[in-house]
Amino acid sequence: MERASKTVSSAGGDVVDDNQERGKAASSIGSQSITSVASQESIYETMRRTRMLEPRSSNRRITKNAQFVNVLKECMLNHRWVEAGQVMKAICLEPMQMEDIIWKCGRHIMYNHPKSTQGIVSAFSLKLQRLLNQQGRLEKSVEHAFYLLSKGDLQEAYMTLREAPDLRKGLNVTKRHETEDRWETLAFLYSGLIKYAMWLESKAECSNESEYTDIQFGSQDSLAIERHADDATRSFEFLTDTAGIWDVFITKHCEILECHEKLGDASEVLHKYKDNNPKNPNAHKYLYGYLKRHNAHPNELVTVLKDLLHLVPSDELALDMCELIQNSADNASLALPFLFDMLDYACWQDDIRPWEKLADLLITVVKNNDSDGLKITKECWDSRSKWWPSYHFRSCHVITDTEQDRNLLDCKAAIATLLPAANTSTGNPFRKCAKRALKHTGAYRRLKKAIKLTKDN
User: Facing residues of 6 across strands?
Assistant: First the structure.
């Protein structure tokens, strides 16, 4: 049984059938948008001759709609955009339950159709919104804004989002964090991101002009920069109290704040973002990067990095952690666990940086007979003694490491020599092969020291 919903038209207040209203709107889309890019009528006429377009009941409509979709899919997969436009025109005559296909496929057709223009796409987007509820209109506004951005039209994209439902009153964010509509939130945030892009453009233009003339404070150019920065900041500021992953927006927010020397606000934003997202590694990285840029105390940097490396032991910033510990801590051997954790991962097997640090640190610990360092080394090695030799110290690795970097082989051989119980039936062959490969080269310094230390001890 067909649904007989009624609605009041916005123009005259007459009661009309909801399906009829949708049909008129869709027909308008078909005639004014799809038809604008269709230059031939072959498929459309074929459908009419084969009675695919004749009036039908609800059950027959479902069957025929499936046929339309199959033909449309065939045209689109083969990039026959003109014919796909003709099929879409036919679908628009009876759009009930086909709104998503009309929207997604119709836009894709017009993006690729040889006779499509930005005006046709915009008209299609505007007209289709009449068929959709409020949430659907917001989603389509965001998608259309992306299309305009791909064409480089920042201002039009911004106006598309600003004129979307519930955003027409301006950038009022006092209650924005309470909304449960994700598309409303995204539309609001992306309008701020566009303002950020406008801010960058204004800055670049002022930089180019300043090569010839001085940009005065309070001038039209400086006011434009301030206006774009304020609009973008107001769009982003509610995120500090909102749970979720907002990396792209948080970084832009802090960039603007730092550029305008609002360092206290930038620090607060990043600290809150990390506290709200303790399991997001990027939240820790952004805060660390900010603190490092502004010469924070090493202890504060170490605290942030510890939280990050607890989540991602293989992160490259483990190297920064080791440098901070070696430069600031009384006991440099505290860096050993971070290096061992880092080298557990295959992505660092052939990178000389962690191997170099570990080799130098072990040589120092053994040379100085550092009891704390030896204890930490033993604790780290005990959990790895059964699998590290076959993972890192195999004889077949000697040839590969020699071809890649002889210094890398020198570091690995030195470590294999100094680690307790590494000189097993697996460890010894590796060290002997490495010694033979490096003996007549300059890359023999660390292994020579390691061998001397083991003999002395």
Answer: 17
